[in-house]
């Protein structure tokens, strides 16, 4: 193996490990969000019962419960937004992995000498190139969605 091929292989492995670590972190956070959703749901149910059942409670107490309920709703909405962002990140990771695999396949075809390529090789190379462009376009769409979402939140 020439040095540049070893370097490319090493970089591909490193980026794959980084994607794997990011995917694990995202998965952990999604699980944490799910647990938090359940906890917020339980707290919300308790507060709703208190508000419905305790009509004789002082107005200050009911106002406090209502404020707590609104806080829980706001917290849940924030978590839903974060979950949505994480799902986009998961899609982006999948597309990144797909792009890396297609890139490696394309390199193997492109590294072949033109005189040794069969018509099937050339056809496969063109197909991989087409798929690679599609993946890049999908990633671009995801990035645009994230940017639009970020701008709308501002």
UniProtKB/TrEMBL annotation:
Keywords: Coiled coil, Membrane, Monooxygenase, Oxidoreductase. Pfam families: bMERB_dom. GO terms for molecular function: monooxygenase activity. Its main location: membrane. Signal peptide: none annotated. Residues 13-154 form the BMERB domain. It is found in: Membrane. It comes from the Eukaryota. PANTHER family: [F-ACTIN]-MONOOXYGENASE MICAL1 (PTHR23167:SF35), CALPONIN HOMOLOGY DOMAIN-CONTAINING PROTEIN DDB_G0272472-RELATED (PTHR23167). This is MICA1 monooxygenase. It comes from Platysteira castanea.
């Amino acid at each position: 193996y020439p040095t540049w091929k070893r370097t490319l292989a090493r970089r591909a492995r490193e980026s794959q490990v980084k994607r794997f670590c990011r995917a694990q972190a995202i998965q952990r956070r999604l699980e944490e969000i799910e647990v938090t959703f359940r906890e917020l749901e339980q707290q919300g149910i308790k507060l709703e019962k208190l508000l419905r059942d305790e009509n004789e409670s002082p107005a200050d107490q009911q106002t406090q419960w209502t404020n707590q309920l609104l806080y829980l709703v706001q917290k849940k909405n924030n978590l839903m937004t974060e979950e949505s962002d994480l799902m986009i990140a998961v899609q982006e990771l999948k597309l990144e992995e797909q792009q890396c695999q297609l890139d490696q396949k394309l390199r193997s075809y492109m590294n072949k000498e033109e005189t040794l390529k069969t018509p099937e090789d050339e056809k496969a190379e063109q197909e991989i190139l087409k798929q690679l462009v599609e993946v890049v376009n999908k990633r671009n769409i995801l990035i645009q969605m994230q940017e639009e979402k970020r701008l709308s939140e501002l």
